[in-house]
Amino acid sequence: MITSFLSVALLALCVYAIHGSRRKLSQALQHSFAQCRFDTPQGHVSGASLRVVKASHQVSRHTSGAPSEIFWYCVAPGPAYFLAIAHVTRPGRRIEVRWTLRALTEERMRGALVDDRKATAAAFGQDGAATAGGPPAGR
User: Fold this and answer.
1) pTM above 0.85?
2) Using one digit for the tens of pLDDT, what is the confidence trace for 11-33?
3) Which of 47, 50, 51, 131 could lock onto 36 through a cystine, CB 3.0 to 4.6 A?
């Protein structure tokens, strides 16, 4: 009986810690991205002016299952298309994020979103035509 209670308590603690860690990572990503300014072929672009239409990540086996590279497909006014790559490190209890922004052609953006109807509609509109960017979308 006590063993079962301790097992359930430990499991609940692990779930709580994982959820808190993910929330902390999400907040760190959003905050650091909004503060960034990138030099692009279109001129200076701020992270706050980009609208994220799709997010994906790669997990490193060296970071205890935490994402080490996160990919955000973004649309800027114009429209212009970008891939934002977050390089995440966790020295100690801190989260450090370094961003790289790569310009994408419309063709490459469409290719990246080909299997995601929702992201394609967010980037190009319901009919698939290119649309202007807006404020960053929430996740």
Assistant:
1) no
2) 444 334 333 467 888 888 988 89
3) 47
| Closest C-alpha among 77, 70, 82 to residue 39 | 82
Chain position carrying tokens 């989260």: 95
Q: Is the peptide bond before 79 cis (omega within 30 degrees of 0)?
A: yes
CA distance 101 to 38: 7
How far apart are alpha carbons 120 and 107 in whole angstroms? 12
The CA distance from 88 to 67, in Å, is 7
User: Nearest to residue 118, comparing CAs of 139, 98, 135, 100?
Assistant: 139
- State residue 91 phi and psi, 5-degree precision: -75, 115
CB 129 within 8 A of CB 16: no
